[in-house]
C-alpha cells in the first residue's frame, strides 16, 4: 500500500459584535473567520507489518503548542482497545465521549505515549479521540502507521481566537481525507457533504476540550465567512444556540492586537451576570443595543463613518458592563488617533482587541496604525513577578474561507 497523505488548514475566529449580550436570549452576536490565521494538520498513513498485537503505530507531533513542541507515540492496538470508532452518519449523530472514556485516553497517553511525567497532555486527548473515532475501524487502523504533524504558528494558542476549534477542524478534515484515500493537489474548500462531516467531527473534538461548547467556533472554522448566532430558550429552561452562516461580499481587513494580559473568561461572565441580576432593566437595554449593532453589521452597506461608529459604541457598551481593561483601552485610544476604531473581542478583561480597517482606510494609514499598536506595552504581575509585555499585532482578513483540504 502506498502512503496516503492529506493536509488541511482551518482558521481561527473572532467575535466582531455581541460579546456577552448573546448569552442573554434573544440577542444576536456575529463571529467571523480569521482567514489567514490558521492551524495546519498533516496526516500520513502507511502500511505496517505484524499482527494486531505488534502492528501499526500512531506518532503525533504538535509543534507549536508550547516551546519544544508536544508529542506522543502509541500502538494502534492500544487505541483500538478503547473502542473510539464512531459513524458520523448514524442516526442521532456522534455520541459525546463521557468522562470515563476521556480519562481512559488521558491515562493511555500518560502511561504508554512516551511523554514526561509532568507533561500536560491535554491537547493530545482530542487528537487520540479523533484518530480513533475517524480511523478506528479494526480493519483500517490495525495494520497502518499513522503520522500526524500539527503547526499552529500563525494562530496564537490560548488567546481567545478559536485555536482549539481550528485544531479539531483541521485535524478532522485531514483524517477524513486520509480515510477516503488522501487529498488531491492544492488545498481547496471541500464540498457541502464533506464540510458537514468535518464540522461534526470538529465539534466532537471541541466537546472533549470544553465539555459542552456552543458549536460556534468549529462552525466558523469549518465554513468560513460570518456566523450569526442567537441563544434560544426552550420550554423548561433549556437553551440552544441558533447559527446562520453568512458570506460577505468581500473579506474585511482587521488588526488583531494581543495584549498578553491574562484573563478569566469564567470570572468575567460571572461578573456580568451578577451585575445583570442587580440591574436587569439597565443591562437588558444595553444588551439590546449590542444586538442591534450586530444586526446593523449583517445588513451590510457599511460606510467608514458607520462602521467606526458601531465599533466605538460597541466598545463603550462593553466598557460600561465592566469587561474592558486599561491595556485594551490603550489600543482603542491609539488607533483612534489615526481615524480607526477598535474594540475588545471575546470575554475581554485582557486578551485581544480588534481594529476594523474599512476599505476606505488607505495603506499608509493602515501601516501607521499597525506600527503604533506594535509599540504599545503593558506592565503587570506575571508568573515570575512584575513583567512588561510588548503587544503583538497581526494583520489578517475576517470573513474569508474556512477549512481547506489537499495533498502535497
Automatic annotation (TrEMBL):
GO biological process, one term: isopentenyl diphosphate biosynthetic process, mevalonate pathway
Gene Ontology molecular function: ATP binding; mevalonate kinase activity
Record's catalysed reaction(s): (R)-mevalonate + ATP = (R)-5-phosphomevalonate + ADP + H(+)
EC number: 2.7.1.36
A family per Pfam: GHMP_kinases_N
Main location: cytoplasm
Keyword set includes Coiled coil: no
UniProt-annotated location(s): Cytoplasm; Plastid
EC class (word): transferase
UniProt KW Repeat keyword: no
Pathway in which this enzyme or protein is active: Isoprenoid biosynthesis; isopentenyl diphosphate biosynthesis via mevalonate pathway; isopentenyl diphosphate from (R)-mevalonate: step 1/3
InterPro entries: GHMP_kinase_C_dom, GHMP_kinase_C_sf, GHMP_kinase_N_dom, GHMP_knse_ATP-bd_CS, Mev_gal_kin, Ribosomal_Su5_D2-typ_SF, Ribsml_uS5_D2-typ_fold_subgr
PROSITE patterns from the UniProt entry: GHMP_KINASES_ATP (PS00627)
Superkingdom classification of source: Eukaryota
Keywords for the protein's UniProt record, in alphabetical order: ATP-binding, Cytoplasm, Kinase, Lipid biosynthesis, Lipid metabolism, Magnesium, Nucleotide-binding, Steroid biosynthesis, Steroid metabolism, Sterol biosynthesis, Sterol metabolism, Transferase
Residue ranges occupied by any GHMP kinase C-terminal domain in the UniProt entry: 314-372
GO cellular component, one term: plastid
Domain GHMP kinase N-terminal: 141-225
Family: Belongs to the GHMP kinase family. Mevalonate kinase subfamily.
Record's protein name: Mevalonate kinase
Highest classification ranks of the organism: Eukaryota, Sar, Stramenopiles, Ochrophyta, Bolidophyceae
Amino acid at each position: 500500500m502506498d502512503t496516503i497523505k492529506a493536509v488541511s488548514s482551518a482558521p481561527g475566529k473572532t467575535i466582531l459584535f455581541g460579546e456577552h449580550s448573546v448569552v442573554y436570549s434573544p440577542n444576536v452576536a456575529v463571529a467571523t473567520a480569521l482567514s489567514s490565521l490558521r492551524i495546519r494538520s498533516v496526516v500520513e498513513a502507511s502500511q505496517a507489518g505484524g499482527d494486531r498485537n505488534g502492528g501499526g503505530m500512531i506518532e503525533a507531533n504538535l509543534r507549536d503548542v508550547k516551546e519544544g513542541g508536544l508529542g506522543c507515540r502509541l500502538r494502534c492496538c492500544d487505541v483500538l482497545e478503547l473502542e473510539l470508532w464512531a459513524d458520523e452518519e448514524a442516526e442521532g449523530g456522534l455520541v459525546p465521549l463521557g468522562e470515563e472514556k476521556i480519562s481512559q485516553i488521558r491515562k493511555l497517553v500518560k502511561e504508554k505515549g512516551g511523554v514526561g511525567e509532568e507533561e500536560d497532555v491535554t491537547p493530545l486527548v482530542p487528537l487520540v479521540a479523533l484518530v480513533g473515532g475517524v480511523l478506528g475501524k479494526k480493519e483500517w487502523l490495525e495494520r497502518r502507521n499513522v503520522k500526524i504533524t500539527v503547526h499552529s504558528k500563525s494562530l496564537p494558542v490560548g488567546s481567545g481566537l478559536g485555536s482549539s476549534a481550528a485544531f479539531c477542524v483541521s485535524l478532522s478534515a485531514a483524517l477524513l481525507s486520509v480515510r477516503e484515500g488522501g487529498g488531491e493537489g492544492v488545498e481547496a474548500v471541500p464540498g457541502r457533504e464533506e464540510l458537514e462531516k468535518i464540522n461534526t467531527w470538529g465539534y466532537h473534538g471541541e466537546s472533549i476540550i470544553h465539555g459542552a461548547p456552543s458549536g460556534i467556533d468549529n462552525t466558523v472554522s469549518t465554513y468560513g465567512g460570518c456566523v450569526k448566532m442567537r441563544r434560544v430558550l426552550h420550554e423548561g429552561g433549556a437553551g440552544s444556540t441558533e447559527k446562520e452562516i453568512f458570506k460577505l461580499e468581500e473579506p474585511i481587513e482587521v488588526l488583531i492586537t494581543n495584549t498578553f494580559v491574562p484573563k478569566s473568561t469564567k470570572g468575567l461572565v460571572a461578573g456580568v451576570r451578577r451585575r445583570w441580576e442587580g440591574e436587569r432593566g439597565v443591562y437588558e437595554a444595553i444588551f439590546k443595543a449590542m444586538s442591534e449593532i450586530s444586526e446593523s453589521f449583517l445588513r451590510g452597506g457599511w460606510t467608514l463613518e458607520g462602521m467606526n461608529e458601531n465599533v466605538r459604541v460597541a466598545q463603550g457598551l462593553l466598557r460600561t458592563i465592566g469587561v474592558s481593561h486599561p491595556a485594551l483601552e490603550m489600543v482603542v485610544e491609539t488607533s483612534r488617533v489615526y481615524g480607526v476604531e477598535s474594540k475588545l473581542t471575546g470575554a475581554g478583561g485582557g486578551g485581544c482587541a480588534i481594529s476594523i480597517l474599512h476599505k476606505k482606510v488607505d495603506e499608509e494609514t493602515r501601516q501607521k496604525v499597525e506600527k503604533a499598536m506594535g509599540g504599545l506595552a503593558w506592565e503587570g504581575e506575571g508568573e515570575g513577578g512584575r513583567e512588561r509585555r510588548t503587544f503583538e499585532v497581526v494583520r489578517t482578513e475576517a470573513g474569508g474561507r474556512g477549512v481547506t483540504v489537499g495533498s502535497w
